Amino acid sequence: MAQAHADEMLARNIASVVNRPVCVTALFCEDCDAPIPEQRRRAVWGVTRCVSCQDMGERYSR
Ligand SMILES: [Zn+2]
Predict the structure, then answer these.
(1) Which residues surround ligand 1, an ion (CB under 5 A)?
(2) pLDDT score, position 36
């Protein structure tokens, strides 16, 4: 039982690390390589495109 408990604690620790929000925002636009302002990266979670490319992509997806 003690071993099972230890395993569970270890699994929880790993899960807490994995589930922690990771900064996946890109420094540069993946479409045009323009630098993405830090303000935008903070405002839009997980943003990978600059304003104009994001805008274009949203129009295409409609
Ligand atoms: Zn762009």
Answers:
(1) 29, 31-32, 34, 50, 53
(2) 92
In angstroms, what is the span from residue 40 Cα to ligand 1's centroid? 13
**Half-sphere exposure of 41 toward its Cβ, with a 13 Å CA cutoff?**
14
Q: Is 27 helix (H, G, I), strand (E, B) or coil?
A: coil
Residue range 13-59, pLDDT digits in tens: 777 666 655 556 789 999 999 999 989 888 887 889 999 998 888 88
Residue 49 tokens, joined: 């495109």
For 38, the token pair is 């830090």
3-state DSSP helix/strand/coil percent for the chain, to nearest 5? Answer: 55, 5, 40
Helix (H) or strand (E) holding 58: helix 51-61
Residue 53: per-residue pLDDT: 92
